[in-house]
Design goal:
By secondary structure, the chain is α+β, with helices and mostly antiparallel strands. The protein is built from eight helices and 20 strands. It has a five-stranded antiparallel β-sheet with strand order 6-7-12-10-11. It has a four-stranded mixed β-sheet with strand order 1-2-5-3. The structure holds flavin-adenine dinucleotide and NADP nicotinamide-adenine-dinucleotide phosphate (NAP).
């Protein structure tokens, strides 16, 4: 384990923003991480646990310690139709999806091509095309930063919610996830309930898709709609889709004919933030070095030389426009530092 100083984070965040970490430590094993936590070096310093940096916006240098989680390894265990996969937190998420499909372990296909690491996947309960991590989650292992103790979290203990978990709330910054175990299966059961996925499969004339066909279709849709972070800096959806009371949604429906909404439990309705942003005229707008993606306005982009502050200012301007038109507060999904 090497402690580096004044390390550029430009290649460690998918926005491609230049910012420096005062200290930078890459961890490749649980033992190394426990040693670090028990060394006393982390005490009273700002910490940032970094995976693939695909859900992070740096607005300034990080005056603390960045711990890059690079604990790798994937193993499968079969028991009847159940296939349990355990992965190191530093494994690339999409690599896990592809390796699982290759093994014949289904269940992750809808979550294909999400950037980032396995360790970050429970933090915001990643989700796409009608499936969330919690649907396949079994447990995770994490190290308590203050003591170096190893802890196990079950699904219930993670308190998964829409793009959220206990690690974004009560336990924020207290644990480093080192290993995740998921329950996959080798049956033909799939989930193609999500409208855009169903239409794309229909277009391909596939009625009963295999998990591999679903994965390929999700990849096709994503590549046609989302900017590739290796070419245009971005962190995916900048905001969460707001969930509002059904009664407020009914009022908005009277004013804005055709406003989309997806009914949720407890008399709530989820409104696509992309629609709200488009209605306020931001779609495709460019301000200096940054802008709003023209095909999916929920994605803010860095056209190359943008700064974190420019992105943040743009995100605030969009929030203000949406609030003044719809009285809805857009909450950032991206972690801003
Ligand atoms: P980072 O950005 O490195 O970290 C994110 C947060 O998790 C930080 O707070 C960090 O401290 C914490 N963290 C990271 N690793 C650990 C760990 N081991 N232990 C404890 N805390 C940790 N998200 C979706 O949900 N669905 C999508 O469909 C989706 N599509 C995307 C498409 C694009 C093009 C992009 C750029 C992003 C997309 N995202 C999506 C967002 C992002 O990919 C996910 O949030 C992903 O899980 C982040 O992983 P990461 O390793 O890059 O995390
Ligand atoms: P889309 O298909 O254009 O749909 C727009 C929004 O409507 C989505 O955000 C989705 O909410 C919601 N939606 C659509 N059909 C739904 C249904 N049947 N039930 C409930 N909600 C529904 O979205 P998109 O931007 O192309 O993204 C496709 C999927 O990939 C979505 O699930 C999205 O979350 C995910 N994605 C996430 C990120 C990220 O960074 N977080 C980036 C790109 C894509 P949900 O978001 O809740 O699914």
């Amino acid at each position: 384990m090497t402690i580096q100083e004044q390390v550029s984070l430009k290649n460690y965040n998918t926005f491609g923003i230049e910012a420096k970490a005062h200290y930078f430590i890459e961890i490749t094993s649980e033992v190394e991480l426990i040693e670090l936590c028990q060394s006393g070096f982390l005490a009273n310093k700002n910490l940032l646990i970094l995976g693939g940096g695909s859900n992070i916006l740096f607005t300034k240098d990080f005056e603390g310690i960045v711990i890059k989680n690079s604990i790798k390894g994937i193993s499968f265990k079969k028991s009847g139709q159940l296939i349990r996969v355990t992965s190191g937190a530093g494994t690339n998420w999409h690599e896990l999806v592809l390796k699982s499909l290759e093994y014949g372990a289904n269940g992750l296909e809808n979550l294909s091509l999400i950037p980032g690491t396995v360790g970050a996947s429970p933090v915001q309960n990643i989700g796409a095309y009608g499936v969330e991590l919690k649907d396949v989650f079994e447990s995770l292992k994490a190290i308590k930063i203050a003591t170096g103790e190893v802890a196990t979290f079950t699904k219930d203990q993670c308190l998964f919610d829409y793009r959220s978990s206990v690690f974004k709330n009560d336990l924020k910054g207290q644990f480093i996830i080192t290993e995740v175990t998921l329950n996959l299966h080798n049956s033909k059961e799939t989930n193609i309930s999500y409208g855009a996925l169903k239409s794309a499969l229909n277009e391909k004339k596939i009625d009963n898709p295999t998990s591999k066909e679903i994965s390929n279709t999700v990849i096709d849709i994503r590549q046609s709609k989302l900017p590739d972070p290796s070419k245009i800096g971005n962190a995916g959806s900048f905001y969460k889709n707001p969930v509002i009371d059904k009664s407020d949604f009914t009022i908005l429906q009277q004013k804005y004919n055709g406003i989309p909404g997806f009914h949720q439990p407890a008399n709530k309705v989820k409104i696509p933030a992309a629609w709200l942003i488009e209605q306020t005229g931001w779609k495709g707008k460019k301000i200096g070095n940054v802008g709003v993606n023209p095909t999916q306005p929920l994605v803010l982009v860095n056209y190359g030389k943008g700064t974190g502050k420019e992105i943040k200012d743009l995100s605030i301007a969009i929030q203000k426009s949406v609030f003044s038109k719809f009285n809805i507060t857009l909450e950032a999904e991206v972690n801003i530092y």
